[in-house]
Design a protein that fits this description.
6-stranded mixed beta sheet; alpha/beta; binds 2'-deoxyadenosine-5'-monophosphate; binds zinc ion; binds fe (iii) ion; 13 helices
Length: 475
């Protein structure tokens, strides 16, 4: 117990008061600078009333913490890979992963009118026609030769090389990722070959977004990196204490989403132990529980893993396994889900994804950078896939079902990983990258990544207005 809390408790006890254990829990969450003043005022008030028990109600009343019960907090898990993960192996596994990717995305694209004219690659290769044709499949290769771009597309019936001449279409082709699904409008070239006349991504259709009926707020966090020397404990703790303050926005918060890299992990990068305050996973998770248990119980917390958290490294990842430390799992208001996961908050569908594959996309696509992660996230939405490239840095597991396909259109798309707060709106979908709670690391300084840590991203689920609240100390 902090010495200020001990002082407050002793002060009340010396005046002949008893403190209910639930009231004590609230005292532990109060800003310690205010504590002495608060306890003195409560003792004065209750002495007048000749009531010598301080209970939870007294404190909530005094601190303005009574929650507006008309604000809904309906929470539902829409999809979670944790229980669906298998361990398909080797080449067969990857063949079925790509077959699943193809069929899911073909189904998505079949809502477009052009898809009525889709032909299989095998049939295009064996017929000759003067009409334009449509094919779809996964990009297996992209080559730029002199002033043309060649795209090889695979579907389950075969593989075709197509040629892009048009300058604008070549720009479009430059942003295609390997293994990404596309539809192409093609025609037979006069001198043979297949000329690309249009490149169409599955994309997001126009649609109305779901909103909360009441003014509930959700906070988006990620990349806490608890256990790292650079973890911003004070700032995160100040944020958690703020949740129990009378601030009118804090009073309406019903959900906290944590998008992975909750702990810094062990053995994630060379010589990591020299940069750790806690050198084992159990202790890192214990510290996490200690901090998160101060979040008021009426706030639902949702946690997915990132590339620093324990458990399987390949995507999709199951929830952080209980075997490392079950105490987070035991908290009533914490839900441990896999990466990626989709949840419904008062009817608002949130797609949560740590975002490791942002690295692959930034590395291969001209015009995209680490300081604008929302643009990369827009790319994922357009390609309706969270990790298209196989065999780059992001490990993909050979699942028989490609769970990285964005099958259901979200209302909010939440990712982290790059440690930079960024946001955008795309076809009505609120795109959020939630930054970090870790100072710039020497590694990040070395590769030129400038994080924006210590900012809580807060969304009004009724209006989709976004606020950022800065918890970095200015004093
Ligand atoms: O990733 C934090 C940030 O550091 C994120 O922007 C990616 C970047 N990062 C991490 N590892 C690498 C490598 N190997 N190369 C380039 N950039 C990297 P985090 O997941 O928190 O470590
Ligand atoms: Fe991170
Ligand atoms: Zn990460």
């Amino acid at each position: 117990m902090e010495k200020e809390v001990v002082f407050a408790v002793n002060y009340a006890l010396n005046k002949g008061f008893q403190i209910h254990p639930d009231a004590l829990k609230i005292l532990e969450r109060v800003d310690i600078k205010e504590l002495e003043n608060i306890i003195k005022q409560i003792v004065r008030e209750k002495s007048k009333q000749k009531l010598f028990l301080i209970n939870q109600d007294d404190l909530e009343e005094f601190l303005g913490l009574k929650d507006d019960e008309s604000i809904e907090n309906e929470f539902r898990v829409i999809s979670d890979p944790s229980s669906k993960i298998t361990s398909a192996e080797g080449v067969d596994g990857y063949n079925s992963l790509f077959a699943s990717r193809f069929s899911k995305l073909k189904k998505i694209i079949s809502n477009r009118p052009e898809s009525k004219m889709l032909k299989s690659i095998a049939s295009v290769l064996t017929t000759k026609s003067n009409d334009d044709l449509y094919i779809c499949g996964l990009v297996s290769e992209r080559r730029v030769e002199r002033n043309v771009t060649k795209l090889s597309i695979d579907d389950p019936t075969g593989s075709i090389e197509t040629i892009v001449f048009d300058k604008d279409l070549q720009k479009n082709a430059a942003s295609l990722l390997t293994d990404q699904f596309v539809m192409e409008k093609i025609s037979f070239g006069k001198k043979g070959g297949f000329i690309v006349k249009d490149i169409i991504a599955p994309d997001i259709p126009e649609h109305p977004s779901n909103r909360s009926k009441t003014e509930a707020y959700a906070v988006f966090l990620s990349d806490l990196h608890i256990g790292s020397m650079y973890f911003m404990e004070k700032e995160l703790n100040d944020f958690i204490l703020w949740l129990s303050s009378p601030d009118p926005v804090a009073r309406k918060i019903r959900f906290i989403l944590i998008g992975g890299d909750v702990v810094d992990g062990v053995g994630i990068y060379p010589n990591q132990d020299k940069e750790l305050d806690f050198v084992n996973i159990h202790d890192q998770l214990e510290k996490t529980r200690e901090l998160l248990s101060k979040i008021p119980e009426h706030i639902q917390v949702i946690i997915i893993p990132g590339n620093h958290d324990p458990g399987r490294r390949a995507l999709p990842q199951p929830a952080i396994p209980e075997i490392y430390n079950s105490t987070l799992w035991d908290q009533k208001n914490i839900s441990m889900l896999g990466n990626p996961a989709m949840v419904s908050l008062n009817g608002v569908k949130v797609l949560m994804f740590h975002g490791q594959s942002i690295d692959d996309v930034v590395r291969t696509t001209p015009g995209l950078s680490y300081d604008k992660p929302a643009n990369v996230m827009k790319h994922f939405l357009q390609s309706r896939h969270l990790s298209p490239i196989y065999g780059s840095q992001t490990p993909l597991a050979p699942e028989t079902d490609d769970m990285m396909v964005i099958e259901e259109v979200p209302d909010i798309f939440h990712a982290g990983h790059v440690h930079v707060v960024d946001m955008d709106l795309y076809k009505g979908i609120l795109i959020l990258n939630s930054g970090a709670w870790q100072h710039q690391t020497p590694f990040q300084a070395g590769v030129g990544i400038t994080p924006t840590p210590g900012l809580a991203v807060i969304v009004n689920l009724k209006t989709f207005k976004v606020y950022t609240k800065d918890f970095t100390s200015k004093d």
